[in-house]
């Protein structure tokens, strides 16, 4: 299986993340992908290839163009306004304030386009986000050209980014854009399977009213975990999308047994629905020692997870999402890929 990876991920490494009322070294840090790269090479999973130039056209079609324009100039506008540090939203609109007017002031614009203040924009974030998307697009092209699967070692991740908001370490929703490109490439029905510990609220939001892309996620119960305000089982889609959104939340301490049972259930639903292609939002923060998550999967479980996904027999693009037990991120991520190839 080929991996698509760009060194430009290094351009995104904020000085700090707001966590627990303190500024800490961001959990979503460059060393994460270094461990994945090392493990890919150690296990000889396949070629590791730099992507081509990003194609923003599919992003402009799927996402809000104003949001993309914001991301492109946010840092420069922020600094031009005399702001001392990196771009961080100090607040967001209240429940009943109007969202139909976008502030002219960059501080206000940031509050409009951000949904989580732990995520900073730096001078290199826009380039890194584009490079991350380019990896996902290259993986999609590889599968469109006939490969059974491809791995996009995306950094920054994407599944919390909606069509017009960033947050949760995400800026461009790589998995969602790949799903759309699979649709544009002729796949009639595409499924996005999100195995990251955190609910992919962004991907859900983008496809919630659509019946041609199914979103399925197994994740920490939003009552107890980020993103807190999406991911409940009763969110099943709306309109054309009714029935094409599947959420399976679990509480703290959930081990692989029930998690795997949920995966089998979701896989059955995806097959009955008639998916012709698959995008996997591959986060490995369901791992027992992840510092910001609360499931109890162990490293061998990720091999089994990969096998079950591989048995679906669908052309598959894996997009890297989260995973913060840094020393194990490589083993756990590559275990999924190796399990998939074993199937
Ligand atoms: N004190 C720590 C609070 C952390 N709150 C934000 C969690 C973001 C999770 C991001 C992710 O792992 O879902 C992604 F895949 F997008 F990277
Ligand atoms: Zn996560």
From TrEMBL:
InterPro entries the record matches: HDACs (IPR000286), His_deacetylse_dom (IPR023801), His_deacetylse_dom_sf (IPR037138), Ureohydrolase_dom_sf (IPR023696)
NAD as UniProt keyword: no
Key words of the record: Hydrolase, Metal-binding, Zinc
Coiled coil: none
Cofactor dependence: Zn(2+)
A biological-process GO annotation: epigenetic regulation of gene expression
Residues in Histone deacetylase domain copies: 28-337
Domain of life: Bacteria
Single GO molecular function: histone deacetylase activity
Pfam families hit by this protein: Hist_deacetyl
PANTHER family the UniProt entry points to: HISTONE DEACETYLASE 8, HISTONE DEACETYLASE HDAC1-RELATED
Record-stated family: Belongs to the histone deacetylase family.
Protein name: Histone deacetylase family protein
